[in-house]
Amino acid sequence: MTTAEELELPVARKCPFAPPEEYTQIREEQPITRVKIPDGKEAWVVSRHEDVRTVLNDRRFSSDRFNENFPILVKGGNVFRRSNAERTMITMDAPEHGPARKSVLGEFTVKRVNAMRPRIQEIVDKLVDDILAAEGPVDLVEALSLPVPSLVICELLGVPYTEHDFFQENTAKLLKRTVSFDERQAAFENVRGYLSRLITTKEAAPGDDLLGRQIVKLRSEGTYEHGAVLGLAFLLLVAGHETTANMISLGTVGLLQNPSQLDAIKADPGKTLDAVEELLRYFTIVDTATARVAVEDVELGGVTIRSGEGVLALGYTANWDPTVFDEPAKLDITRGARHHVAFGFGPHQCLGQNLARAELQIVFDTLFRRIPSLRLAVDVDDLPFKSDASIYGLYRLPVTW
Ligand code: HEM
Fold first, then answer.
1. Cα 160 to middle of ligand 1, angstroms
2. Which of 174, 225, 305, 359 gives 20 to 30 Å between its CA and that of 251?
3. Model's pTM, two decimal places?
4. Which helix (H) or strand (E) holds 45?
5. The dihedral of CA 59, 61, 62, 68: what is its sign?
6. Contact indicator for 150, 241 with CB cutoff of 8 Å
Protein backbone atom coordinates (compact mmCIF):
# COMPACT_ATOMS: atom_id res chain seq x y z
CA MET A 1 0.00 0.00 0.00
CA THR A 2 1.11 3.61 -0.65
CA THR A 3 2.08 5.75 2.36
CA ALA A 4 -0.33 8.49 3.41
CA GLU A 5 1.86 11.22 1.84
CA GLU A 6 1.66 9.50 -1.56
CA LEU A 7 -2.06 8.90 -1.30
CA GLU A 8 -4.53 11.07 -3.22
CA LEU A 9 -7.89 11.75 -1.60
CA PRO A 10 -10.75 11.17 -2.08
CA VAL A 11 -10.30 7.42 -2.56
CA ALA A 12 -13.14 5.78 -4.51
CA ARG A 13 -15.20 3.24 -2.54
CA LYS A 14 -14.55 -0.25 -3.82
CA CYS A 15 -16.87 -2.03 -1.41
CA PRO A 16 -20.19 -0.21 -0.98
CA PHE A 17 -20.53 -1.39 2.63
CA ALA A 18 -17.21 -0.23 4.15
CA PRO A 19 -14.76 2.67 3.92
CA PRO A 20 -11.78 2.17 1.56
CA GLU A 21 -9.02 0.33 3.43
CA GLU A 22 -6.69 3.31 2.87
CA TYR A 23 -9.04 5.41 5.04
CA THR A 24 -9.08 2.89 7.86
CA GLN A 25 -5.30 2.61 7.68
CA ILE A 26 -4.92 6.40 7.94
CA ARG A 27 -7.17 6.54 11.01
CA GLU A 28 -5.30 3.72 12.70
CA GLU A 29 -1.73 4.70 11.80
CA GLN A 30 -1.59 8.45 11.04
CA PRO A 31 -4.92 9.96 12.15
CA ILE A 32 -3.83 13.49 11.18
CA THR A 33 -1.62 13.45 8.13
CA ARG A 34 -0.95 15.09 4.80
CA VAL A 35 -2.26 13.69 1.52
CA LYS A 36 -2.43 14.78 -2.11
CA ILE A 37 -5.67 16.20 -3.51
CA PRO A 38 -6.91 16.38 -7.13
CA ASP A 39 -6.14 20.09 -7.61
CA GLY A 40 -2.44 19.18 -7.43
CA LYS A 41 -1.97 20.53 -3.91
CA GLU A 42 -1.71 18.82 -0.54
CA ALA A 43 -4.08 18.95 2.39
CA TRP A 44 -4.34 17.60 5.90
CA VAL A 45 -6.72 14.74 6.50
CA VAL A 46 -8.29 14.39 9.94
CA SER A 47 -9.88 11.00 10.49
CA ARG A 48 -10.80 10.30 14.14
CA HIS A 49 -14.30 11.10 15.40
CA GLU A 50 -13.08 13.48 18.10
CA ASP A 51 -10.70 15.39 15.80
CA VAL A 52 -13.28 15.67 13.02
CA ARG A 53 -15.74 17.25 15.46
CA THR A 54 -13.00 19.58 16.75
CA VAL A 55 -12.19 20.83 13.24
CA LEU A 56 -15.83 21.31 12.28
CA ASN A 57 -16.54 23.26 15.47
CA ASP A 58 -13.48 25.55 15.45
CA ARG A 59 -13.67 29.01 13.89
CA ARG A 60 -9.98 28.85 12.96
CA PHE A 61 -11.04 26.44 10.19
CA SER A 62 -12.92 28.36 7.50
CA SER A 63 -15.69 27.18 5.16
CA ASP A 64 -14.88 29.87 2.60
CA ARG A 65 -14.87 27.97 -0.67
CA PHE A 66 -13.77 31.20 -2.40
CA ASN A 67 -10.49 31.23 -0.45
CA GLU A 68 -7.81 30.29 -3.00
CA ASN A 69 -6.36 27.77 -0.55
CA PHE A 70 -9.65 25.96 0.05
CA PRO A 71 -9.08 22.29 -0.90
CA ILE A 72 -10.84 21.46 -4.16
CA LEU A 73 -11.52 17.77 -4.59
CA VAL A 74 -12.27 17.63 -8.30
CA LYS A 75 -9.84 18.15 -11.16
CA GLY A 76 -9.94 21.45 -13.03
CA GLY A 77 -10.80 23.78 -10.17
CA ASN A 78 -13.64 25.38 -8.36
CA VAL A 79 -16.70 26.07 -10.53
CA PHE A 80 -18.22 28.40 -7.93
CA ARG A 81 -15.08 30.55 -7.73
CA ARG A 82 -14.52 30.69 -11.49
CA SER A 83 -18.17 31.61 -12.09
CA ASN A 84 -18.02 34.26 -9.38
CA ALA A 85 -21.12 32.64 -7.91
CA GLU A 86 -23.25 34.04 -5.13
CA ARG A 87 -21.95 33.38 -1.63
CA THR A 88 -24.26 31.19 0.45
CA MET A 89 -24.26 30.08 4.08
CA ILE A 90 -22.23 26.95 3.33
CA THR A 91 -19.30 29.13 2.17
CA MET A 92 -19.57 31.71 4.99
CA ASP A 93 -17.84 32.04 8.34
CA ALA A 94 -18.81 33.93 11.49
CA PRO A 95 -20.03 36.61 11.83
CA GLU A 96 -21.61 36.49 8.34
CA HIS A 97 -22.78 32.86 8.55
CA GLY A 98 -25.14 33.13 11.55
CA PRO A 99 -27.58 35.69 10.11
CA ALA A 100 -27.66 33.97 6.68
CA ARG A 101 -28.55 30.63 8.31
CA LYS A 102 -30.97 32.19 10.79
CA SER A 103 -32.91 33.84 8.00
CA VAL A 104 -34.10 30.46 6.72
CA LEU A 105 -33.76 28.25 9.84
CA GLY A 106 -37.45 28.62 10.71
CA GLU A 107 -38.37 26.76 7.51
CA PHE A 108 -36.59 23.59 8.72
CA THR A 109 -37.55 23.22 12.40
CA VAL A 110 -38.94 19.90 13.68
CA LYS A 111 -42.35 21.58 13.96
CA ARG A 112 -42.31 22.82 10.36
CA VAL A 113 -41.10 19.47 9.08
CA ASN A 114 -43.81 17.64 11.07
CA ALA A 115 -46.38 19.84 9.34
CA MET A 116 -44.99 18.61 5.99
CA ARG A 117 -45.32 14.93 6.95
CA PRO A 118 -48.89 14.35 5.63
CA ARG A 119 -47.88 15.75 2.22
CA ILE A 120 -44.65 13.68 2.17
CA GLN A 121 -46.73 10.58 3.04
CA GLU A 122 -49.14 11.39 0.18
CA ILE A 123 -46.24 11.74 -2.28
CA VAL A 124 -44.68 8.44 -1.17
CA ASP A 125 -48.03 6.58 -1.28
CA LYS A 126 -48.74 7.73 -4.83
CA LEU A 127 -45.28 6.66 -6.01
CA VAL A 128 -45.65 3.25 -4.31
CA ASP A 129 -49.09 2.87 -6.00
CA ASP A 130 -47.35 3.41 -9.34
CA ILE A 131 -44.60 0.90 -8.48
CA LEU A 132 -47.17 -1.76 -7.57
CA ALA A 133 -49.11 -1.07 -10.76
CA ALA A 134 -45.93 -1.66 -12.81
CA GLU A 135 -45.67 -5.31 -11.75
CA GLY A 136 -41.83 -5.17 -11.44
CA PRO A 137 -38.96 -5.17 -11.85
CA VAL A 138 -38.63 -1.41 -11.55
CA ASP A 139 -35.70 0.95 -11.05
CA LEU A 140 -36.28 2.30 -7.54
CA VAL A 141 -33.99 5.30 -8.16
CA GLU A 142 -36.29 6.60 -10.87
CA ALA A 143 -39.54 5.37 -9.31
CA LEU A 144 -39.01 6.54 -5.72
CA SER A 145 -35.56 7.68 -4.54
CA LEU A 146 -35.30 10.73 -6.82
CA PRO A 147 -38.93 11.85 -7.08
CA VAL A 148 -39.62 11.93 -3.30
CA PRO A 149 -36.98 14.53 -2.32
CA SER A 150 -37.32 16.37 -5.65
CA LEU A 151 -41.08 16.80 -5.25
CA VAL A 152 -40.69 17.83 -1.61
CA ILE A 153 -37.94 20.41 -2.21
CA CYS A 154 -39.63 21.81 -5.35
CA GLU A 155 -42.92 22.30 -3.48
CA LEU A 156 -41.14 23.81 -0.48
CA LEU A 157 -39.10 26.27 -2.57
CA GLY A 158 -41.80 27.02 -5.13
CA VAL A 159 -39.85 25.62 -8.09
CA PRO A 160 -41.97 23.88 -10.77
CA TYR A 161 -41.44 20.10 -10.55
CA THR A 162 -42.02 19.89 -14.32
CA GLU A 163 -38.38 21.03 -14.63
CA HIS A 164 -37.01 18.12 -12.57
CA ASP A 165 -35.34 16.32 -15.49
CA PHE A 166 -33.41 19.49 -16.27
CA PHE A 167 -32.27 19.93 -12.64
CA GLN A 168 -31.39 16.30 -12.11
CA GLU A 169 -29.37 16.07 -15.30
CA ASN A 170 -27.41 19.21 -14.46
CA THR A 171 -26.83 18.47 -10.76
CA ALA A 172 -25.68 14.95 -11.63
CA LYS A 173 -23.00 16.54 -13.87
CA LEU A 174 -21.99 18.96 -11.13
CA LEU A 175 -21.47 16.13 -8.65
CA LYS A 176 -19.65 13.69 -10.93
CA ARG A 177 -15.89 13.83 -10.44
CA THR A 178 -15.15 12.49 -13.93
CA VAL A 179 -17.07 15.25 -15.75
CA SER A 180 -14.80 17.92 -17.32
CA PHE A 181 -14.52 21.36 -15.76
CA ASP A 182 -16.21 23.04 -18.75
CA GLU A 183 -19.14 20.66 -18.65
CA ARG A 184 -19.54 21.16 -14.90
CA GLN A 185 -19.44 24.90 -15.31
CA ALA A 186 -22.06 24.76 -18.09
CA ALA A 187 -24.32 22.63 -15.86
CA PHE A 188 -23.89 25.12 -13.04
CA GLU A 189 -24.72 28.09 -15.28
CA ASN A 190 -27.79 26.29 -16.69
CA VAL A 191 -29.36 25.84 -13.27
CA ARG A 192 -28.24 29.26 -12.06
CA GLY A 193 -29.72 30.99 -15.13
CA TYR A 194 -33.02 29.17 -14.76
CA LEU A 195 -33.30 29.98 -11.03
CA SER A 196 -32.37 33.62 -11.61
CA ARG A 197 -35.26 33.99 -14.09
CA LEU A 198 -37.60 32.19 -11.68
CA ILE A 199 -36.66 34.53 -8.82
CA THR A 200 -37.22 37.58 -11.05
CA THR A 201 -40.77 36.30 -11.63
CA LYS A 202 -41.24 35.79 -7.90
CA GLU A 203 -39.96 39.30 -7.15
CA ALA A 204 -42.97 40.66 -9.10
CA ALA A 205 -45.44 38.41 -7.26
CA PRO A 206 -43.94 36.54 -4.28
CA GLY A 207 -46.05 33.47 -3.50
CA ASP A 208 -46.43 31.54 -0.25
CA ASP A 209 -43.39 29.32 -0.74
CA LEU A 210 -39.93 29.44 0.83
CA LEU A 211 -38.39 31.66 -1.86
CA GLY A 212 -41.42 33.98 -1.91
CA ARG A 213 -41.38 34.22 1.89
CA GLN A 214 -37.63 35.05 1.84
CA ILE A 215 -38.19 37.84 -0.69
CA VAL A 216 -40.95 39.39 1.45
CA LYS A 217 -39.00 38.98 4.71
CA LEU A 218 -35.70 40.37 3.43
CA ARG A 219 -37.45 43.29 1.72
CA SER A 220 -39.23 44.17 4.97
CA GLU A 221 -35.84 44.12 6.73
CA GLY A 222 -34.35 46.28 3.95
CA THR A 223 -31.68 43.70 3.10
CA TYR A 224 -33.13 42.06 -0.02
CA GLU A 225 -30.66 41.10 -2.76
CA HIS A 226 -31.55 39.04 -5.82
CA GLY A 227 -28.18 37.24 -5.69
CA ALA A 228 -28.58 36.15 -2.06
CA VAL A 229 -31.94 34.46 -2.74
CA LEU A 230 -30.57 32.98 -5.96
CA GLY A 231 -27.64 31.44 -4.04
CA LEU A 232 -30.01 30.10 -1.40
CA ALA A 233 -32.31 28.57 -4.02
CA PHE A 234 -29.37 26.87 -5.71
CA LEU A 235 -27.95 25.54 -2.45
CA LEU A 236 -31.27 24.14 -1.20
CA LEU A 237 -32.23 22.63 -4.54
CA VAL A 238 -28.93 20.77 -4.91
CA ALA A 239 -28.46 19.90 -1.20
CA GLY A 240 -32.11 18.95 -0.86
CA HIS A 241 -32.55 16.24 -3.44
CA GLU A 242 -29.35 14.37 -4.40
CA THR A 243 -28.42 13.64 -0.78
CA THR A 244 -31.74 12.23 0.39
CA ALA A 245 -32.28 10.39 -2.91
CA ASN A 246 -29.00 8.53 -2.52
CA MET A 247 -29.76 7.69 1.11
CA ILE A 248 -33.16 6.24 0.08
CA SER A 249 -31.47 3.92 -2.44
CA LEU A 250 -28.54 2.91 -0.24
CA GLY A 251 -30.73 2.56 2.86
CA THR A 252 -33.04 0.21 0.97
CA VAL A 253 -30.08 -1.94 -0.11
CA GLY A 254 -28.60 -1.80 3.40
CA LEU A 255 -31.84 -3.06 4.94
CA LEU A 256 -32.37 -5.76 2.29
CA GLN A 257 -28.82 -7.02 2.93
CA ASN A 258 -29.48 -7.15 6.70
CA PRO A 259 -32.79 -9.03 7.01
CA SER A 260 -32.79 -9.18 10.83
CA GLN A 261 -32.61 -5.38 10.98
CA LEU A 262 -35.30 -5.05 8.34
CA ASP A 263 -37.55 -7.49 10.23
CA ALA A 264 -37.10 -5.41 13.37
CA ILE A 265 -38.50 -2.28 11.73
CA LYS A 266 -41.24 -4.21 9.96
CA ALA A 267 -42.32 -5.58 13.36
CA ASP A 268 -42.03 -2.18 15.05
CA PRO A 269 -42.04 0.93 12.85
CA GLY A 270 -41.23 2.88 16.03
CA LYS A 271 -37.66 1.71 15.37
CA THR A 272 -37.40 3.20 11.87
CA LEU A 273 -35.93 6.51 13.03
CA ASP A 274 -33.13 4.62 14.80
CA ALA A 275 -32.57 2.66 11.59
CA VAL A 276 -32.35 5.92 9.63
CA GLU A 277 -29.71 7.24 12.02
CA GLU A 278 -27.68 4.04 11.77
CA LEU A 279 -27.92 3.96 7.96
CA LEU A 280 -26.70 7.58 7.84
CA ARG A 281 -23.66 6.58 9.93
CA TYR A 282 -23.05 3.35 8.05
CA PHE A 283 -22.97 4.89 4.55
CA THR A 284 -21.84 8.50 5.34
CA ILE A 285 -22.66 9.55 1.78
CA VAL A 286 -21.26 13.11 2.08
CA ASP A 287 -17.71 12.99 3.38
CA THR A 288 -15.86 15.47 1.22
CA ALA A 289 -18.22 18.45 1.70
CA THR A 290 -16.78 18.89 5.18
CA ALA A 291 -13.48 20.35 3.94
CA ARG A 292 -12.03 23.50 5.51
CA VAL A 293 -9.06 25.88 5.22
CA ALA A 294 -7.10 26.97 8.31
CA VAL A 295 -7.11 30.75 8.77
CA GLU A 296 -4.76 30.65 11.80
CA ASP A 297 -2.07 28.21 12.91
CA VAL A 298 -3.72 25.42 14.91
CA GLU A 299 -2.12 22.73 17.11
CA LEU A 300 -4.11 19.53 16.76
CA GLY A 301 -3.19 16.02 17.87
CA GLY A 302 0.54 16.77 17.99
CA VAL A 303 0.81 18.53 14.60
CA THR A 304 0.68 22.19 13.60
CA ILE A 305 -1.75 23.01 10.85
CA ARG A 306 -0.56 26.29 9.35
CA SER A 307 -2.79 29.15 8.30
CA GLY A 308 -3.65 28.69 4.61
CA GLU A 309 -3.49 24.88 4.68
CA GLY A 310 -6.47 22.80 3.58
CA VAL A 311 -8.09 20.24 5.89
CA LEU A 312 -10.38 17.34 5.04
CA ALA A 313 -12.49 16.36 8.04
CA LEU A 314 -13.31 12.83 7.00
CA GLY A 315 -16.78 11.99 8.25
CA TYR A 316 -16.71 8.42 6.96
CA THR A 317 -13.72 7.34 9.09
CA ALA A 318 -15.14 9.30 12.05
CA ASN A 319 -18.42 7.40 11.77
CA TRP A 320 -16.52 4.10 11.70
CA ASP A 321 -14.19 5.01 14.56
CA PRO A 322 -14.27 1.89 16.79
CA THR A 323 -13.51 3.93 19.91
CA VAL A 324 -16.90 5.58 19.46
CA PHE A 325 -18.97 3.02 17.53
CA ASP A 326 -18.47 -0.55 18.70
CA GLU A 327 -18.10 -2.99 15.77
CA PRO A 328 -18.63 -0.20 13.20
CA ALA A 329 -18.93 -2.65 10.28
CA LYS A 330 -22.11 -4.05 11.80
CA LEU A 331 -25.34 -2.36 10.74
CA ASP A 332 -27.07 -2.27 14.11
CA ILE A 333 -30.21 -0.17 14.43
CA THR A 334 -30.17 -0.50 18.23
CA ARG A 335 -26.81 1.20 18.75
CA GLY A 336 -28.24 4.72 19.07
CA ALA A 337 -25.95 6.33 16.49
CA ARG A 338 -27.18 9.89 16.99
CA HIS A 339 -23.71 11.33 17.59
CA HIS A 340 -22.59 10.40 14.06
CA VAL A 341 -21.27 13.19 11.83
CA ALA A 342 -23.09 12.24 8.60
CA PHE A 343 -24.82 15.65 8.75
CA GLY A 344 -21.56 17.37 9.72
CA PHE A 345 -21.04 19.03 13.10
CA GLY A 346 -20.86 22.52 14.57
CA PRO A 347 -22.22 25.72 13.02
CA HIS A 348 -22.59 24.29 9.49
CA GLN A 349 -24.35 21.10 10.58
CA CYS A 350 -26.92 20.20 7.92
CA LEU A 351 -29.80 22.66 7.83
CA GLY A 352 -32.11 20.13 6.19
CA GLN A 353 -31.49 17.21 8.57
CA ASN A 354 -34.98 17.18 10.10
CA LEU A 355 -36.49 17.11 6.64
CA ALA A 356 -34.12 14.38 5.44
CA ARG A 357 -34.90 12.22 8.51
CA ALA A 358 -38.66 12.62 7.97
CA GLU A 359 -38.44 11.71 4.28
CA LEU A 360 -36.28 8.65 4.98
CA GLN A 361 -38.51 7.46 7.81
CA ILE A 362 -41.69 7.79 5.77
CA VAL A 363 -40.14 6.12 2.72
CA PHE A 364 -38.74 3.05 4.56
CA ASP A 365 -41.92 2.58 6.63
CA THR A 366 -44.20 2.84 3.63
CA LEU A 367 -42.06 0.88 1.19
CA PHE A 368 -41.58 -2.19 3.40
CA ARG A 369 -45.14 -2.11 4.81
CA ARG A 370 -46.77 -1.95 1.39
CA ILE A 371 -44.28 -4.17 -0.45
CA PRO A 372 -43.07 -6.58 2.25
CA SER A 373 -41.59 -9.00 -0.29
CA LEU A 374 -39.43 -6.30 -1.94
CA ARG A 375 -36.04 -7.66 -3.05
CA LEU A 376 -33.16 -6.84 -5.39
CA ALA A 377 -33.80 -7.84 -9.01
CA VAL A 378 -30.05 -8.23 -9.69
CA ASP A 379 -27.10 -9.48 -7.69
CA VAL A 380 -25.83 -6.86 -5.23
CA ASP A 381 -22.39 -7.01 -6.95
CA ASP A 382 -24.02 -5.88 -10.20
CA LEU A 383 -25.53 -2.70 -8.75
CA PRO A 384 -24.07 0.53 -10.24
CA PHE A 385 -22.79 2.37 -7.15
CA LYS A 386 -21.63 6.00 -7.52
CA SER A 387 -17.96 5.54 -6.77
CA ASP A 388 -17.16 8.48 -9.10
CA ALA A 389 -19.42 11.10 -7.50
CA SER A 390 -18.93 13.51 -4.61
CA ILE A 391 -22.14 12.22 -3.01
CA TYR A 392 -22.14 8.41 -2.73
CA GLY A 393 -25.21 6.53 -3.89
CA LEU A 394 -26.64 4.43 -6.69
CA TYR A 395 -27.28 5.23 -10.34
CA ARG A 396 -29.96 2.52 -10.64
CA LEU A 397 -31.59 0.09 -8.23
CA PRO A 398 -33.59 -2.67 -9.95
CA VAL A 399 -36.05 -4.23 -7.48
CA THR A 400 -38.88 -6.71 -7.70
CA TRP A 401 -41.35 -8.32 -5.24
C1 HEM B 1 -24.95 21.05 5.15
C2 HEM B 1 -25.26 16.21 4.66
C3 HEM B 1 -29.92 16.65 3.31
C4 HEM B 1 -29.40 21.46 3.21
C5 HEM B 1 -24.66 19.69 5.17
C6 HEM B 1 -23.40 19.14 5.65
C7 HEM B 1 -23.49 17.79 5.49
C8 HEM B 1 -24.80 17.48 4.93
C9 HEM B 1 -22.39 16.76 5.82
C10 HEM B 1 -22.24 19.93 6.27
C11 HEM B 1 -21.37 20.63 5.26
C12 HEM B 1 -20.21 21.37 5.91
O13 HEM B 1 -19.92 21.21 7.09
O14 HEM B 1 -19.52 22.12 5.19
C15 HEM B 1 -26.57 15.92 4.25
C16 HEM B 1 -27.09 14.57 4.11
C17 HEM B 1 -28.41 14.70 3.74
C18 HEM B 1 -28.69 16.12 3.64
C19 HEM B 1 -26.31 13.29 4.37
C20 HEM B 1 -29.45 13.65 3.46
C21 HEM B 1 -29.44 12.41 3.84
C22 HEM B 1 -30.21 17.98 3.18
C23 HEM B 1 -31.49 18.54 2.82
C24 HEM B 1 -31.33 19.91 2.76
C25 HEM B 1 -29.96 20.20 3.12
C26 HEM B 1 -32.75 17.73 2.56
C27 HEM B 1 -32.30 21.00 2.43
C28 HEM B 1 -33.49 20.91 2.06
C29 HEM B 1 -28.16 21.75 3.72
C30 HEM B 1 -27.64 23.10 3.87
C31 HEM B 1 -26.37 22.98 4.44
C32 HEM B 1 -26.12 21.56 4.61
C33 HEM B 1 -28.36 24.39 3.50
C34 HEM B 1 -25.41 24.12 4.81
C35 HEM B 1 -25.65 24.56 6.23
C36 HEM B 1 -24.72 25.65 6.69
O37 HEM B 1 -23.69 25.92 6.04
O38 HEM B 1 -25.03 26.29 7.72
N39 HEM B 1 -25.49 18.66 4.77
N40 HEM B 1 -27.55 16.81 3.95
N41 HEM B 1 -29.31 19.00 3.36
N42 HEM B 1 -27.22 20.85 4.17
FE43 HEM B 1 -27.43 18.85 4.16
1. 22
2. 174
3. 0.96
4. strand 42-46
5. positive
6. yes
